[in-house]
Amino acid sequence: MKSSRPAHRCTECGYTSAKWVGRCPECQAWGSIQEVGAVGSSPLRSVSAGPVSAKARPIGQVELAGARAVPTGITEFDRVLGGGLVPGALLLVAGEPGVGKSTLLLEVAHRVAAANGPTLVVSGEESAAQVRLRAERIGALHDDLYLAAETELSAVLAHVEDVAPTLLVLDSVQTVRSPAVDGTDGGATQVRAVATALSAVARSRNMTVILVGHVTKDGAIAGPRALEHLVDVVISFDGERHSTLRLVRATKNRFGPADEIGCFEIGDGGVVGVPDPSHLFVSRRSAPVPGSCVTVTMEGSRPLLAEVQALVASSGGGGSPRRAVSGLDSQRVAMVNAVVERRGGVRLADADVFAASVGGVRILEPAADLALALAIASASKDRPVPAGLIALGEVGLSGEIRRVGGTARRLAEAARQGYTAALVPEDSGPAPKGMRLVEVADLGGAIARLW
């Protein structure tokens, strides 16, 4: 038997090491390795066959009723989930403070209580009276909607035994602690223990559990990365404080697509779904202005119109020109800016360039490259892009315009919104009814066709 030695564990991912290191070799987190006590080597033990929970059956005989999604009644939320809430599933909803997570989930709990029976909302951050005031404000009162304010896991499980809900909403997982394990409240050990216990209860009772999680300063979900592996669905709730638009995305989904997006608008009456959000991302003006171009982005299976704006101004001759970006990928904007100057013949070396999206939406896909390039060229030439025109295409470093996926659906959505012309790469397919396609091979040709 070897002598006992101290062990070190990563608080982010659970990686165990015999010695302390500054950076975790598994998750690459700095300063996350902590000493957890002394351990000794134990002899190997043989494992024999034991009892099984259920006999193995041919896959064709497995029943599907337990995995059917139950709609919540909120269309935008169901779209992100892949149809609704699956019984026995564990969901994690994360977002910045004040973005509207608790309000949306309270409305979800109200809809589920009205349609499927008892629902339990456990708040570890607010009192039951505070949650009741919010429910009155958004009209989410129901006899089958139960509220509790608890911070102990044992108390939460007791409420579950008493109410027997079909849905449990825990706000938030960082505020609940388990007395059975050591660790600070909200720490990696406590969060992992709470999530593991609730996951077992959810599956044994065929109950859906929604956990609300905090986020760090860089937007990542707070707590150990193992938390994201324990849950079945991870949903991010995004939005800026000065904007009423809220975007719900599924970054992980075992029961549906992981690239769908739901659009909501927050107001005095709560969080309301926006089934056709394209008008939120496009400016409405009587006449076109320089430095603006419309494109169509794909969020999962949903095409959305988005407007890209640019402003080119003289730098005044002092220092390096400024490059500011909002709502776009700064690295991609810098690349497109260089291609516009080198391949498009637009001088930008001594000018400040500002680029932004409209409505607070983030545009990260390459399909918006052509629209961004045309917006920069339009701002530099002080000549507007013609009204009723959209631009689709990825811009390469040599100036070529490449095709993008989902072109047919993008063009169909633009035609439905009233756009009559589209600047697209070559071989983009047939044009929708009422729309004229202008195919271009490179950026220089696109700029020449417009002006």
TrEMBL record:
Keyword DNA damage carried by entry: yes
Residue ranges annotated as motif RadA KNRFG motif: 252-256
Boundaries of every RecA family profile domain copy: 66-215
Keywords assigned by UniProt, alphabetized: ATP-binding, DNA damage, DNA repair, DNA-binding, Hydrolase, Metal-binding, Nucleotide-binding, Stress response, Zinc, Zinc-finger
PROSITE patterns tied to this protein: RECA_2
UniProt region (Lon-protease-like), positions on chain: 352-451
A GO BP entry: recombinational repair
Gene3D superfamilies referenced in this protein's UniProt entry, alphabetically: 3.30.230.10, P-loop containing nucleotide triphosphate hydrolases (3.40.50.300)
Signal peptide segment: none
InterPro entries: AAA+_ATPase, DNA_repair_RadA, P-loop_NTPase, RecA_ATP-bd, Ribosomal_Su5_D2-typ_SF, Ribsml_uS5_D2-typ_fold_subgr, Rubredoxin_2
SMART domains in the record: AAA
One cellular-component annotation, GO: cytosol
Single GO molecular function: ATP-dependent DNA damage sensor activity
List of residues binding ATP: G95, E96, P97, G98, V99, G100, K101, S102
Its job: Plays a role in repairing double-strand DNA breaks, probably involving stabilizing or processing branched DNA or blocked replication forks. DNA-dependent ATPase involved in processing of recombination intermediates, plays a role in repairing DNA breaks. Stimulates the branch migration of RecA-mediated strand transfer reactions, allowing the 3' invading strand to extend heteroduplex DNA faster. Binds ssDNA in the presence of ADP but not other nucleotides, has ATPase activity that is stimulated by ssDNA and various branched DNA structures, but inhibited by SSB. Does not have RecA's homology-searching function.
HAMAP family: RadA_bact
Listed NCBIfam families: sms (TIGR00416)
Family that this chain belongs to: Belongs to the RecA family. RadA subfamily.
Free-text note regarding domains: The middle region has homology to RecA with ATPase motifs including the RadA KNRFG motif, while the C-terminus is homologous to Lon protease.
Protein name: DNA repair protein RadA
The gene coding this protein: radA
